[in-house]
Amino acid sequence: xxxxxxxxxxxxxxxxxxxxxxxxxxxxxxxxxxxxxxxxxxxxxxxxxxxxxxxxxxxxxxxxxxxxxxxxxxxxxxxxxxxxxxxxxxxxxxxxxxxxxxxxxxxxxxxxxxxxxxxxxxxxxxxxxxxxx
Length: 133
Hints:
Number of helices: 1
Number of strands: 8
Radius of gyration: 16 Å
Shape: globular
Order of helices and strands: EEHEEEEEE
Structural class: mainly beta
Largest sheet: 4 strands, mixed
Helix content: under 10%
């Protein structure tokens, strides 16, 4: 599938990726890039997911978060069935453009368990998990 992407191919850059002003995300060999969603108001990490080029292009175009489900092998819009939409406030990329941060306004919980964040457990020194809300 050809995606009309609003971003450059990293191979087309004439300058180091760390210094460029062009958005040129580096997708892995599997065609995916890691994306973390953070709350625009609090900075809290809400969830971590993956995007392919189509999901990233749709996110930019629609202003709502789209992801690629590795388990289902399909594109999905966050909140498509639950109504818990992520409205994009800002899209950031790391220094070498192989990870994305979506700064979002989250409607309802981000986690499929009904919690605000998917990161609701902490690891104890004994290696167990402590649930926090």
